[in-house]
Amino acid sequence: MRYAIMRIKMKEAGTEEFFARLRVRLDDRALPPQEVIASAIHADQPFISRAKRGTLKRVTARVQRLDAYLSRRTALSAKLEEHGDTVRGAVHQRSKTRLQSKRTRDDREVKLARKSCETYLAEGYNPRVLIDQIDLLRKAQSKSL
Known about the structure:
Blueprint: H1 2-10, H2 15-26, H3 34-40, H4 45-53, H5 61-83, H6 87-122, H7 127-144
Helix pairs in contact: 3-4
């Protein structure tokens, strides 16, 4: 009898739809890792994993905290999209900045190498030594690839 009552309580109206919506929201790729979500709602990571797999059966306090957290994240994402500051845009902007700084660094290194070679030659040293060094570096580089 007690088990039958528990099963009826577990099948409360809307519970299955609630868990289905929870699973869909947990599948969002913009969410942080499960460990971060778990620490934010004061739960353990396996709980988040079970919620994502859909093995939860009852709406407990932890499930409600997870739902509230996901609601806040969804509202924050909507607000950011409204202003055009999406997470994807921010990541894209950072990677673009990294490429620009790498390009700038490469340009500086090329200029430094050119200036060093010009200085070496201006001081009257043998240009054949530079050519031999470049050939040696090319051979070493081709072996490493």
